[in-house]
Design a protein that fits this description.
Layout: H1 5-19, E1 32-37, H2 52-67, E2 71-73, H3 83-92, H4 96-112, H5 129-143, E3 145-148, E4 153-156, H6 157-167, H7 184-189, H8 192-199, E5 205-215, E6 220-222, E7 227-228, E8 231-232, E9 240-249, H9 255-260, H10 269-279, E10 281-293, E11 296-304, E12 315-318, H11 324-328, H12 334-346, H13 349-355, E13 361-368, E14 375-380, E15 392-395, H14 401-410, H15 446-459, E16 463-469, E17 474-475, E18 488-491, E19 494-497, E20 530-531, E21 534-535, H16 543-547, H17 550-553, H18 566-572, E22 575-580, H19 588-601, E23 611-616, E24 620-630, E25 635-637, E26 647-652, E27 657-658, E28 661-662, H20 664-670, E29 678-680, E30 689-693, H21 705-711, H22 714-723, E31 731-732, H23 738-752, E32 753-754, E33 757-758, H24 767-785, H25 789-803, H26 809-819, H27 824-833, E34 857-864, E35 867-875, H28 880-893, E36 902-907, E37 913-917
Parallel strand pairs: 1-2, 1-22, 12-14, 22-23, 24-31, 25-29, 34-37
Antiparallel strand pairs: 3-4, 5-6, 5-9, 7-8, 9-17, 10-11, 10-13, 10-16, 12-15, 13-14, 18-19, 20-21, 24-25, 24-26, 24-30, 27-28, 32-33, 34-35, 36-37
Helix pairs in contact: 1-27, 3-4, 21-22, 22-23, 24-25, 24-26, 26-27
The structure holds one RNA strand of 85 nucleotides.
Length: about 900
RNA sequence: GCGGGUGUGUUGGAAUUGGUAGACAACCCAGACUUAGGAUCUGGUGCCGCAAGGCGUAUGGGUUCGAGUCCCUUCACCCGCACCA
């Protein structure tokens, strides 16, 4: 019998599906293990070979854990709401639901061919009403909660209302955004609308006015992580800053907990570091400066991490968007300020980032240094950001490079505060040195001066210690159609939550998917978009809403009465292993952690962190090919000759190219405009250029896993993707090495079959064969636990070559089990042929027996006259005396005879003995 | 600018974590079996050298009996953040 992978793979995939082999349930008699992939957004392009990389790794791990006796939850689904389907809908009029449906079917078919051990009964889409019911439910929970800083957790808004009624705003210490101050009596006298407005400053999901990333082309606002360098991540359209009222999530309330819990997670350092930077904790002080505009005087608070430098303040700066600008603009400067603000507003975000030019304008007002009493001018400049700190700073040009650049440009004084710091050419930003010109701080080091200054400020009522975070609240509304509708309606202008019974609130039909002429979101086109006679919210939730708690839903996906039942939650708890790309570091992975913590605080889930271990698989890049067209002609010149002409580089489909040689006839047939192409060849061939690039349709370098499954089979694809290199590394796809793993599988098959003869016998294995087997068992366990799948595949190949043509059942049976996580189809087939009826997926993992692998002898490095030589085959664990004796014996026969005196014998822990002979 | 990471044959990548560098593959070469082979099997394959031997893990130094591995210098590349006071 030959290894007919197509037949075998089809057979077992059908069987797994029919038998629901990988269906799991709560089973307290067995330990659980939860392995999750970042579920895909089903795009129109289908899967390429890069997508399954992480899925294969997680599948191997799941199957390995199953063999180890764990009850493994391994689900899959689709992140189905999102922009591309909607953009497509706007262009074609096709409902995004239909597009999504089609794409999902394609994804599923592609995944099914690779033989994943998902429990498909748990599959869902985030666009299913039965799923997004719980997204909306979670939103209502956040809407109905506030963050109590005293208890450091979220609590129901009812408790907040009660506290206000009894003690006014002073009764709570809450995370809030510019909440007004009021007494209990005032609270009780407020109208419903006023109360609602005030509560908005406290709710975890709230409506608030803020600067947002507005993308005109997409017609929607975007979250910070959806914007890169002033352009939208989806689509690459310019994004501008605009002040708008939007739904937001109070992620900032959780900044401290999100940061602190990172230490307990088994994530890569780089990913944790990215989250740390994003959260951006910085310790410093808030300080009050008196500011004067003519006769009007105010207290203005600023934030600084360098309280030690107050004596060097020579001016102050406001962000252009700061509310202080209006108050502090003196009449004589009004015109100049307005001109400046207009100029700033005109610039796009892109220009602000790229330009980094120093600009600013004087307000005409002055601030008073609280320590020196000196007056300093207040300026406005775009280098101060409205969203961070208080939007106003004290400037210390001597010790801050940005302040320095500003001072030099506008001729403001620079006062050095650190002994020996030369500030003639540049500022001295380092936090080191001895203080001077600084009153009571003189003589202290900077490190001592910072806390000393803060202490002084606090003691004198000028300011207080303060921790600031960069992380902003997440903008949660999108002016889009294809997302979860908000379960909110406007009762007499008051945003009111729908009752839970009204969920899910499903999307209405609309005649078109673009905004209305009035600029309202597409939902405003719906005929009767009301609840109880009142208008419903017309924006929808962003892409990350649906992915924020999907891992919880997988635990209990068909439950209609709860996001997840307490039993299922208590059993599955959280994700033990999460595999996915780094691109979600500051988006999904922050939002999910936030979302989970809210649900944890409110008592709906039992763990406060969702993902214990996280592995980032690297990207698989494509290898693109190019042809070179001579400008203005339809003549193409081969790579080696292209420098003699003026050419443009054109991507060519890699299926028309073999070993960088172009099939010119196929090229002509590829596209009508190339039909009459002519070629300038070298040595009779057209050689293409190449580059490693992102795999994408537009670069014609996409490799479809289906093609690989057709030619080599899913098992080869799985093994090969792992063999390609370390999981976490990015690497280009090339099929050069794929024959190697394919050969391995064929050889493996031939241990069982010679033509039509089944070779497996019951002979006793030799010691060498047992050694090969047990070495592999040890190696595979170690490597899989360390996610070093590439070396495991190598270990299989080594074992195979050591086993020769061994066809003994006692060896092949465990070998089949060991192989099953990597190449499950062939393993199932051979397992059946070995006479087993159950699936190999649930066989017991072979026990490792050290007796077969531990070396009786080992090699000792011995150093003679500065040269290290190795003495082979000495017994293990020698005593010092025995080693000395052995060395003396060696010394007489070896060529490098010293004077024979042993000066030092070092026995390193383990088995390395280090000997120095003089 | 700040932060994180990487650098090993022609190529993908190994190296018991300080112990015979280049495992396992790909490529290439030679051979065997074949009508044939893009099938299968065997052998070779870091560089220089006929050889003995020497040289080799981006660069230069250091620690050590011993360094791909640890420390410092320089260079190159990749990723993330980017006026966060």
């Amino acid at each position: 019998m030959d290894y007919e992978f197509q037949k075998i793979e089809k057979k077992w995939q059908d069987k797994w599906a029919a038998d629901k082999t990988f269906k799991v349930g709560v089973d307290p008699s067995r330990p659980k293990y939860y392995v999750l992939d970042m579920f895909p957004y089903p795009s129109g392009a289908g899967l390429h070979v890069g997508h399954p990389l992480g899925y294969i790794a997680s599948d191997i791990f799941s199957r390995y854990k199953r063999l180890k006796g764990f009850n493994v939850l391994h689900p899959m689904g689709y992140d189905a709401f999102g922009l591309p389907a909607e953009q497509y809908a706007i262009q074609t009029g096709q409902h995004p639901e239909i597009t999504t449906h089609k794409n999902v079917a394609r994804y599923r078919a592609q995944m099914d061919r690779i033989g994943f051990s998902y429990d498909w009964d748990r599959e869902f889409r985030t666009s299913d009403p039965s799923y997004f019911k719980w997204t909306q439910w979670a939103f209502l929970k956040m809407f109905g909660s506030w963050y109590d800083k005293k208890l450091d957790k979220a609590r129901p808004v009812e408790e907040l209302v009660k506290a206000f009624a009894e003690g006014g705003s002073a009764a709570v210490d809450a995370a809030s955004s510019d909440a007004p101050v009021f007494t209990a009596a005032e609270w009780n006298a407020f109208s419903d609308k006023e109360k609602s407005d005030i509560l908005m400053h406290y709710r975890l999901a709230y409506q608030g006015e803020t600067f947002v990333n507005w993308c005109p082309q997409l017609g929607t606002v975007l979250a910070n992580d959806e914007v890169k360098e002033g352009y939208s991540v989806r689509g690459g359209f310019p994004v501008e800053q605009k002040k708008m009222t939007q739904w937001q999530l109070r992620v900032s309330a959780y900044a401290g907990r999100l940061l602190e819990a990172l230490d307990r997670l088994d994530w890569s350092d780089s990913l944790k570091e990215m989250q740390r930077n994003w959260i951006g904790r910085s310790e410093g002080a808030e300080m009050v400066f008196k500011v004067r505009n003519g006769s009007a005087e105010y207290d203005m608070t600023i934030f600084t991490t360098r309280a030690d430098t107050v004596f060097g303040v020579t001016f102050m700066v406001l962000a252009p968007e700061s509310e202080w600008v209006e108050k502090l603009t003196a009449p004589e400067q009004k015109e100049a300020v307005e001109a400046y603000l207009a100029e700033v507003k005109k610039k796009t975000e892109r220009e602000r980032i790229a330009g980094k030019t120093v600009s600013g304008v004087f307000t005409g007002s002055y601030g008073i240094n609280p320590l020196t009493g000196k007056e300093v001018p207040v300026w406005i400049s775009e280098y101060v950001l409205a969203g961070y700190g208080t939007g106003a700073i004290m400037a210390v040009p001597a010790h801050d490079s940005r302040d320095y650049a500003f001072a030099r440009k506008f001729g403001l004084p620079v006062i050095p505060l650190i002994e020996g710091a030369d500030v003639r050419e540049e500022s001295f930003d380092a936090k080191e040195g001895i203080m001077m010109n600084s009153g009571f701080l003189n003589g202290l080091t900077v490190k001592e001066a910072i806390p000393a200054a803060i202490e002084y400020i606090e003691a004198h009522g000028i300011g207080r210690r303060k921790v600031n975070y960069k992380i902003r609240d997440a903008i949660f509304s999108r002016q889009r159609y294809w997302g979860e509708p908000f379960p909110i309606y406007y009762k007499d202008g008051i945003p009111t939550p729908l009752p839970e019974e009204a969920l899910p609130l499903t999307l209405p039909e609309v005649d078109e998917f673009r905004p209305t002429e009035a600029g309202d979101p597409p939902l405003a086109r719906a005929k009767d978009w009301t609840y109880d006679g009142y208008p419903l919210e017309t924006s929808t939730m962003p892409g990350f809403a649906g992915s924020s708690a999907y891992y919880l839903r997988y635990m209990d996906p068909r439950n209609d009465g709860a996001l997840v039942s307490p039993e299922a939650d208590a059993y599955w708890r959280n994700v033990d292993l999460y595999i996915g790309g780094t691109e979600h570091a500051t988006g999904h992975l922050i939002y999910s952690r936030f979302w989970n913590k809210v649900l944890f605080d409110l008592g709906y889930v039992c763990e406060d962190e969702p993902f214990l271990k996280l592995v980032n698989q690297g990207m698989i890049q494509g290898r693109s090919n190019f042809v070179y067209r001579i400008v203005g002609t339809n003549t193409f010149v081969s790579l080696g000759l292209k420098d003699q002409y003026k050419t443009t580089e054109i991507h060519v489909d890699i299926s028309l190219v073999h070993n960088d040689r172009l099939d010119t006839e196929a090229f002509k047939a590829w596209r009508p405009d190339f039909a009459d192409a002519e070629f300038i060849l070298e040595n009779g061939e057209y050689i293409c250029g190449w580059a490693i690039e992102k795999m994408s349709k537009s670069m014609f370098n996409v490799v479809n896993p289906d093609t690989v499954c057709d030619t080599y089979g899913a098992d080869t694809l799985r093994l090969y993707e792992m063999f390609l290199g370390p999981l976490e590394q990015s690497k280009p796809w090339n099929t050069k090495g794929i024959d190697g793993v394919n050969r391995f599988l064929k050889k493996f098959w031939r241990l069982f079959w010679d033509r039509d003869r089944f070779l497996v016998n019951d002979e006793e294995p030799t010691r060498a064969e047992l050694k090969a087997l047990h070495t592999l068992i040890a190696k595979e366990q170690e490597d899989i636990e360390n996610f070093s799948f590439n070396t495991t595949v190598s270990a299989f190949m080594i074992a195979l070559s050591e086993l020769g043509e061994c066809s003994k059942r006692a060896i092949l049976e465990p070998l089949t089990i060991l192989l099953s996580p990597f190449a499950p189809h062939i393993a199932e087939e051979l397992w059946e042929q070995l006479g087993h009826t159950g699936s190999v997926a649930f066989a017991a993992y072979p026990a490792y027996n050290a007796a077969y692998t531990v070396e009786e002898t080992c090699t000792y490095p011995v150093s003679f006259n500065g040269k290290t030589r190795f003495m082979a085959d000495l017994p293990k664990s020698l005593s010092k005396e025995e080693v000395e004796a052995a060395v003396r014996a060696m010394d007489q026969t070896a060529k490098y005879v010293g004077d024979g005196t042993i000066v030092k014998v070092i026995v390193v822990p383990g088995r390395i003995v280090n000997i120095v002979v003089k």
